[in-house]
Amino acid sequence: MTSSAPALSLRAPSARARHVLIARYAPLATMVALIVAIWYVATVAMNWTLVRDGFEREETPYTLSDVLAGTMDAERPLLPAPHQLAAAVTDSVFGYPPLAPRSLVYHAIITLQATLLGFVIGSLFGVALALMIVHSRVLERSLLPWIICSQMVPVLALAPIFIVMLGALGLHGLLPKSIISAYLCFFPVTIGMVKGFTSPDPLQIELMRTWSATPRQMLWKLRWPAAVPYLFASLKVAISISLVGAIVAELPTGAEAGIGARLLAGSYYGQTIQIWSALIVAAALASGLIAITALVEAGVLRRMGAH
Amino acid sequence: MATEPAVRRLVVDAQDISLTFETADGKVEALSNVSLQVSPGEFLSFIGPSGCGKTTMLRVIADLQQPTSGTLLVNGMSAENARLARSYGYVFQAPALFPWRTIEKNLKLPLEVMGYSEAEQRQRAEHYLALVNLKGFERKFPWQLSGGMQQRVSIARALSFDPALLLMDEPFGALDEIVRDHLNEQLLQLWKSTGKTVLFVTHSIPEAVFLSSRIVVMSPRPGRIIDVIDCDFPADRSLEIRETPEFLKVAQRVRNGLRAGHSYDE
User: Fold this and answer.
1) Which domain holds residue B157?
2) In chain A, which residues have their Cβ closer than 8 Å to the Cβ of B84?
């Protein structure tokens, strides 16, 4: 009788922990399962004609289940099945030494370099623009329309022009890609930081005035810390856009290496599985980058008293 | 030989201050010919209905707003020079603490801005936190404190660089009655022990009568002074004084003044 009480109290937390885990991951798992199921159905539907025509061209007799099986492991399917993709991604990530040209790790690193450099350039440029806009009405009126225009031109059209122009200036490889990446990612940073720099309470600004703070103190002791939450919100958008920019920039470079290059090569040769593998690695890369940014954000904001 | 100008110098000397706002529906006379002399060590309250210009007057003295006409000297200087010389500490109705700074670092902020040494900052933060009974809260963030505690931090912050003049704009207006009574007593103590000049804006009659050595009654449209009432209750008064006939008499005079200012409205 007495022994049942501690046993109960020991069991209770683990049951609750399990419950919390289920509550947290059950919706996610359900969604993943649902997507995979829909994907399989779509695989059958989209590859059906392709596989059936294949049998008929070779004039081999076939049954419905033959076609069904064929849709699951076609060599160049319209839509690869999830298990095909899983195998292809695993193979191209773990099947080769990381720096072999057939390894997706190698291509991911190439793209990652351009992404990170572009992200740094774009973010710094974005913050600098926001600072100028916040401190001068004239600059706000003259710069803002151009900043907005810059994002209305499709980057896919601009990228080749940039690459050619920068190439003529003797810039090849990493830097032109980073510049296109920066061109895309400075925008959310500028918009977010203009909002952030102007976010302090009017009372806080007046307090600083009563202490006759210098403009520099106003920036570093008030506007900058007040803008930090806005900065991270912008950076999370900017880092994923940087990746898109870097991939797009790889398309017109002749596509030697990088995730963009794999996408391009895959579409030249109808290698759908290769295209999808590159896409999945790009998505994983983006998720990883956003997760790292979110981690840094959580750490910084906790130190700044967030609750 | 000791001609005492240094002692007698007025903390605030305002002559015919007027301030007119241009708004969409025409001109608003926030202040009209306000003249006021404040001597060192006074506790002076501005009282009046909203829109009477009491806050505007405080902001003009603080150089947060500029008068349309009139002359104003603060500590014998222009209001702007007085601000640049960090002559006053300002307490707003909201604590306006910086949420990313701990309580101690909030207290240090004006000292950082004014270039005090690190040792001096630490020593002053400790001293003024103790003065408002908040020892032990140094490492807390503002959101971890109640509204009354936050407002005490903001008072300590205004005192931290030891200005001779304290400007307080309805500092307890957002707090409940009990906290407000408590802080009134603390503020009175603080005023007695530091000898600072306090200009205090309120719309509470008991608060004004309890705290002040002089009460300025103001009236709106246009904002002007309609009565100045001296009250000299004993320095060691406690909240119980609010029940005495003398107290009620002064309160009645303030109320009459407020009513007179309002009469043309009805």
Assistant:
1) 97-162
2) 212
